[in-house]
Specification:
With 103 residues, the protein is mainly beta. The chain has one domain. It contains one helix and seven strands. The longest helix has 8 residues. It is globular. It starts with 7 loop residues before the first strand and ends in a 12-residue tail after the last strand. InterPro entries: DUF1883 (IPR015073), DUF1883-like_sf (IPR036488). This is DUF1883 domain-containing protein.
């Protein structure tokens, strides 16, 4: 099994509910990629993989979990000068507003 040729930081976000917001703080421009366990495995094996996110030119950036499940977040330096220091904070998903009957 090969490994990506660039350095990266991995955050195992565990199970998260759809709509949860992830706030990522970076010390430099890097790639931020949110992915499922299957895509994280493909990333580690240097195969094609799918993710949400991309080049983070500002900090902090926020990503919204698209569906409930297990998620991984990668911060990587591919195409950039070095690996940024990073931190991740989970912001609990807002509750859906209750619908009230119009009178």
């Amino acid at each position: 099994m090969s490994k990506p040729s660039f350095r990266f930081s991995h955050y195992d976000l565990q199970e998260l509910r759809a709509g949860t917001i992830i706030e990522v703080t970076l010390s430099a421009v890097n790639n931020v990629r949110l992915m499922t366990p299957g895509n994280f495995q493909r990333f580690k094996e240097t195969l094609d993989f799918k993710y949400l996110g991309g080049v983070a030119k500002k900090s902090p950036i926020k990503l919204t979990i698209p569906e409930s499940g297990h998620w991984h977040l990668i911060v990587d330096m591919e195409g950039h000068h070095g690996l940024a220091d990073s931190s991740v904070k989970t912001i609990v998903a807002p509750h859906a507003p209750r619908m009230s009957k119009a009178s």
